[in-house]
Amino acid sequence: MTTTRGPSPIRADAGPVRLVARGLGVRHPSRRAWALTGVDLVVEPGERILLTGASGAGKSTLLAALAGILDAEGTEVAGELTVDGGAPHAARGRLGLLAQDPDSQLVMTRAGDDVAFGVENAGLPPEGIWPRVDEALAAVGFPHGRDRPTQALSGGEKQRLVLAGALARRPGLLLLDEPTAQLDPDGAALVRSAVARATADRTATVLVVDHDAQPWLPLVDRVVEVVPGGVVEHPAGWRPVPRTAGLQLPAAPDGPVLLAAQAAGFTYRGSPGPALPPTTTALRAGRALAVTGPNGTGKSTLALLLAGLRAPTTGRVTASDELTGTVRNGYDEPHRWRAGELVSRIGTVFQHPEQQFLTGRLRDELALGPLRSGEHAAAARATADELLERLGLTAFADANPYTLSGGQQRRLSVATALATAPRVLVLDEPTFGQDAATWRELVTLLAEQRAAGCAVAVVTHDADLVAVLADGRLAL
Known about the structure:
By secondary structure, the protein is an alpha/beta fold. It has 13 helices and 17 strands. It has helices at about 60-65, 110-120, 125-140, 155-170, 185-200, 300-305, 320-325, 340-345, 360-370, 375-390, 405-420, 435-450, 465-470, and strands at about 20-25, 35-45, 50-55, 75-85, 95-100, 175, 205-210, 220-225, 230-235, 255-265, 275-285, 290, 315-320, 345-350, 425-430, 455-460, 470-475. The strands form four sheets. It has a six-stranded mixed beta sheet, with helices on both faces. The longest helix has 16 residues, at about 435-450. The termini are far apart. The relative contact order is 0.12.
């Protein structure tokens, strides 16, 4: 594949692009298997395409190739890929990209400046920059003003901000990787409407990756599924099979309270208001609690408090005697526990799974928690291998966690939380990036933990997860 080094000068409003892939293949550094093979795809200017496929099928890799950002040393590319007849690198100036991890795209400390950054680089006259910034922020429903610090945003708010930056440039190619995955239902609907309005005049070619295909179907022209060995186009009228169809989950009797928050709240230093107002809730053995609510209401902050990873600035989070057990010094507040004491009692999944990986191999990552909690090496390895098999990650046992797809990283993070067999699970968006099959396996595994007497708390916008797993709901 022909490539060039460095982007060409940015040109805003340059019109839609044409994409052609012939026999495209991509292999990431240090990986034996190819992430993509045999991709043949033609996208005409102004088309809107929904990309689907199993978790790890290569959808994000295909978007990265189209964006011209496959720059890692050692990446192998086979076949042909052109954007308007040239190398993808050369068309970066006409690109609007929302990657799976919005944090990786934030470049400024204030929200308005972050959106303006790309527009300024496009050479727009100064008098036209801020009206376009405000228009883009309004289109995606960004709930704050231009001066909001980007570090104070929730994950969903960051996602909206990055999308606003992409739309503000009015690109000829718009690539969206799971653009609604971290958004509440109203926010997701608003984002889909914003994309539809911004591209209604067909001045941009659009490719969207989303496992929640149904809401996008009225807005796209075609559905293309990435499969082993290439892509398959679905016929008109295609509808995905509901992932909850026929799902039967084990139940459990109501057990004792293991963890409780009493008017627990949190305010970041220097912040004018609380990230989490005083909140009271309890986690019971054999029960699953869903924590729901709009973006920015403090759901992830509450998860950190319940997990013992942050001390509340008001109120308390306390563990029962049954959960505390033999904790040194008898502390009943999890944030005071040592790492080994915490990991064997409360398993945690962060909103961004890459923040919790500590080793260079999946098998080592899964064995780390059991080893810290005192398990022998052979037993820790057996636990790791069992979880790898259960969550479809055995083929990547020796791979670096950072080379996985977003959905695979999410399954790995859930597996690390389960590895020490904790009595409490606190999981932030555990079903992010999953296809129907991996979603069902993940939900079944969580239901089994609940049936075995584990207390489960899930922070989620996933209505299906709430419907099939939650025994109670805390709406913030």
